[in-house]
Write a structure and sequence with these properties.
The chain is mainly alpha-helical and 241 residues long. The chain has helices at residues 36-54, 64-108, 113-123, 126-129, 134-146, 158-173, 175-184, 188-214, 218-238. The two termini are 45 Å apart.
Amino acid sequence: MATLPTDDRAALPPNTTVDAAPAAGPGALEAEVLSPVDRVSEMLFGLLMALTFTGAVSVAESGNAAIRTMFIAALGCNLAWGLVDAVMHLVRTITERGRLITLVRSVQGAADEQTGRSLVAESLSRVAAGLVSTAEVEAVRARVVALRSLPTRPHLGWRDVLMALQIFLIVVVSTFPVVLPFLMMQDVTLAQNVSRAIALTMLFLGGLALGRYAGYGSWRVGLLMAALGTALIVAINALGG
């Protein structure tokens, strides 16, 4: 079973195989979980969407009705965008799988070995292309040519749906930490300050996770994300969001 790369030029890394996968149809390329980058990105997206609503609450408009309206609006917005993100994940997944099937067919139907190697080399990411030799590219081409269980069309499976559901839930759940202070506190100014502190903490933790995943400066990336979040919160308030 192969994992579909996110780089649009990395459709066929050297260890790619196309196997039958009953859960998602023959030839489906599946990933077990979202990458840390995807998870953090979706969390930050949902968080910043929620902040556009909490930033619009003013002391003059404080009251149960106003807070309830803000909560419903923030939740509704993130429900909608979580759904859009989840559906687009499925569209992107099946499109990439179709692209990979097309690439495999092109390599198998190449006029000569050199043409096949060129197709394989062009499919590699910039990083992979700089690390593999001509012999290794030829080895990949030979394995692709030898494939016999190529599906006729790309398929989606239950694990793809579960990943889309994970995206949806991350975006939606990110709403609650920054909105709950308004539901739990009578003082709107205090609730705004607590909400912003929670948002900055989430931004810092998201940056920390990204830094660790990248393998460098996790604390610096965390602080950078917190600073970026501060700038975005100021911009949101300045724009009346």
